[in-house]
């Protein structure tokens, strides 16, 4: 009787031990599977662009800090990831008080090292220069206190159109299809008188694939003091 009980105890013990290791093994497999899934979800998915073209454009004013801390590195990395044949970078700077111009010169050098098509405009016209001009009618507003002041939205729209000029030029040449809404602001876009490009003349691939979908990524980076915007008012 004792021998039978001892044999039964040993079999039960072995069964429990086997079940324990099975549960441990199953738990380990589940943990590894979940970890693998989380790692895969956290990694950016690289999607083949095919014939799509990416147009990166930005307006900068007193944005040296964000440029040097993150923006320059991010744009260079993004442009390299997309590839020189599928990307164009257009930057417009206007009247910065800090060293935004120097930061953009650095960006131009880094893009040049990777042969990325680009146009970076440096404009020495300050906001004070703009608000000191005689009112021309369009883009100005009569305030309740009887003064005529420059409207902020039309002013920024003009700078945006300057930054978008290379894209409009491609549309005019038939290389890139027009915007889906039919809007063509290239007629309004004129390079500021005191602006000059620190980049070489843009050399853009004119392969047939460029006529496919294009995407525009825009950024307006305004950082730093704003006291000279006292007469730059919203509509």
UniProtKB/TrEMBL annotation:
Residues 181-196 have a biased composition (Polar residues). Residues 178-209 are annotated as: Disordered. Residues 197-209 have a biased composition (Low complexity). InterPro entries: Mannosyltransferase_CMT1. It holds the Pfam family CAP59_mtransfer. It comes from the Eukaryota. PANTHER family: CHROMOSOME 8, WHOLE GENOME SHOTGUN SEQUENCE, EXPORT PROTEIN (CAP59), PUTATIVE (AFU_ORTHOLOGUE AFUA_7G05020)-RELATED. This is Unnamed protein product. It comes from Aspergillus oryzae (Yellow koji mold). The lineage of its organism: Eukaryota, Fungi, Dikarya, Ascomycota, Pezizomycotina.
């Amino acid at each position: 009787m004792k021998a039978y009980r001892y044999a039964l105890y040993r079999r039960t013990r072995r069964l429990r031990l086997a079940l324990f290791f099975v549960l441990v093994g199953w738990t380990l497999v589940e943990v590894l599977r979940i970890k693998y899934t989380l790692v895969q979800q956290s990694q950016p998915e690289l999607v083949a662009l095919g014939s799509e073209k990416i147009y990166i454009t930005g307006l900068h004013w007193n944005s040296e800090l964000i440029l040097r801390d993150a923006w320059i590195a991010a744009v260079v990395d993004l442009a390299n990831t997309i590839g020189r044949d599928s990307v164009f970078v257009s930057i417009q700077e206007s009247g910065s008080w800090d060293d935004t111009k120097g930061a953009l010169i650095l960006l131009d050098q880094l893009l040049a090292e990777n042969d990325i098509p680009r146009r970076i405009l440096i404009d020495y016209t300050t906001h004070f220069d703009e608000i000191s001009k005689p009112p021309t009618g369009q883009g100005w507003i009569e305030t309740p206190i009887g003064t005529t002041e420059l409207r902020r939205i039309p002013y920024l729209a003009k700078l945006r159109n300057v930054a978008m000029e290379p894209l409009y030029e491609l549309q005019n040449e038939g290389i890139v299809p027009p915007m889906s809404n039919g809007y063509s602001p290239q007629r309004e876009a004129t390079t500021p008188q005191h602006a000059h490009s620190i980049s070489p003349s843009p050399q853009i691939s004119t392969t047939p694939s460029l006529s496919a979908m294009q995407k525009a990524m825009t950024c307006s980076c305004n950082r730093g003091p704003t006291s000279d915007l006292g007469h730059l008012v919203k509509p």
